[in-house]
Amino acid sequence: MTTVSSTSSSTAASTGSSSLIASGSGTGIDYSALIEASVQKRLSRADRIDTTITANEARIAAYEDMQSLLLAVNTSLDGLRNRSVSTGAGSNLFEERTAYLSGGGSTAAGDVLSVTAADGAETGTYSIVVEQLATRHKIGAATTASQSAALGQSGTLTLGVAGGTAVSIDVEAGDSLTDIRDAINARKSTSGVTASIVKVTDSQYQLILTANDTGKAITLDDGGSGVLTGLGLTDADGGYANELVAAQSAVFTVDGVRVERSSNTIADAVDGLTFDLYAALPGQTIGVEIGTDLASIKGAITGFVDAYNAFRAFAQSHQTVGSSGTASSDATLFADSLLRQVTKTVYDALNAKVTTDDGDTLSLASLGITFASDNTLKVDETALNAALTGDIDAVRTLLGLEMTSSSTDLKLLRYDRSLGRTDFTLDITVAEDGTLSGASVDGDASLFRVSGNRIIGNDGTAFAGLVLVYTGQSGSVDVGFSQGLADRLYTTLNGIAAKDSGDIARIVSQLDADNTDMTRRSDDIKTKAEDYRTRLTAYYARLEAKAEAANLLLQQLKYKESSDD
Hints:
Layout: E1 3-4, E2 13-14, H1 31-78, E3 97-103, H2 109-112, E4 113-117, E5 124-132, E6 136-144, E7 155-161, E8 167-171, H3 177-185, H4 188-191, E9 193-201, E10 204-214, E11 218-221, H5 227-231, E12 243-245, E13 250-254, E14 257-261, E15 265-266, E16 273-277, E17 286-292, H6 294-317, H7 337-350, E18 354-355, E19 361-362, E20 369-371, E21 377-379, H8 381-390, H9 392-399, E22 401-405, E23 410-415, E24 423-430, E25 436-440, E26 448-451, E27 454-457, E28 466-470, E29 475-483, H10 485-497, H11 503-564
Antiparallel strand pairs: 1-2, 3-17, 4-16, 5-13, 5-17, 6-10, 6-12, 7-8, 7-11, 9-10, 13-14, 15-16, 18-19, 20-21, 22-29, 23-28, 24-25, 24-29, 26-27, 27-28
């Protein structure tokens, strides 16, 4: 702080950063008010910029909320698009399979076996009878009075399982039952045999050998040293002295065909099906029906309705008008063009209709989904269940992407936009060496380019975003596409809400850039205003000091004049 004073006055002109007080011997002017008014006039430009930044931040938050809600809609739609991972989907619920079990008499079918179906497995029914479970071979040694005392046996034993790799275990006279168990277990990953000790009574312990895998017999040999007989694992003839559980394979029938495997998990009997056997139930038939996982599809459909209704509530909240007829204070995106576009796009997509090959017209109403008075969606669960169980192929057509082709050699690899043409004949040329050389539609070869065995739609054409794979010979292939409601809406919303490349992301990025620039400008104005405050304060301090000096001189002259009198 700078202080200007005179010897005849105790008051001072203070030149702080925010105030300047005139002394009683100076001008008597309130310099602080003058300075503050001048500085605030300059700061008002920064205030206007800061107000715009705050408004932009509110818009960014609202856009990000809208983006999250639209992405939630797309997440719910993803599995309903009838696309594979290679064509852009995370899953295809129409290809997911589940197994329905029935029968078993008094024993629940699920206690006898379970069946897991891979995606795309053929639907159908099977009759299963579990005759026998696969078991792990178990043999026991003779009991001993102690598990830690020396057994007095010596020699080398070789053990393993049928078809596996045998290992050699050296046994010395000082080894106890525990020592032998530990030596066997140190090699169990190689031998396929695990050892354990069972306390039979307070004075009896027994070594147990168990095959790690079912259906494989334990093999034993001691090269004639007698250590196996001494331990009580084999008898005098070399056979198992105490076989606790015999090794056996699993046996079950599929539609009357006998299947035998070494494991209770069988994945190679029927393509796409894995059977896990839990209990033998000879003479009882278990019915297995492999079908589309309708529960997952229903869950995705109801999840979509919930996600759409959440977005609809958001849109309504930003269209609210207050009692004065103006936008509500919470309606940050009131009259926003993008929000209007998205709302209309979603509404139009949900009201679209799809025509099947049979000429039937499908819509959301076919699934029991209709609009309520506030344009939210509501589900008639009974109608939805009937649609799913009655004609799942119609549901697939209504919601997902489907391609038909007159050649099995033509496969869809990618389809990431809405095509301008959905039915066309593709004329394909293959060179003599088997390489794909060209593809055209109606004689126009500029619509596609080829790369390896891929046929790629060129940008700017009706086929942009389409990639096909062809492995056949020269010829013409008729191709047709049907883009259902879920796939069409997903594709549209992805262009709007995609995290890095969608319309919302671009708008938010621009607003962030604008805010960064405006923040710099505002900070610059504030810095210059404070510099101005400092200069102005010093200027007025100098004026006050001069006024005080003049006032002091005046007083001195008056005093001298009175003294002269």
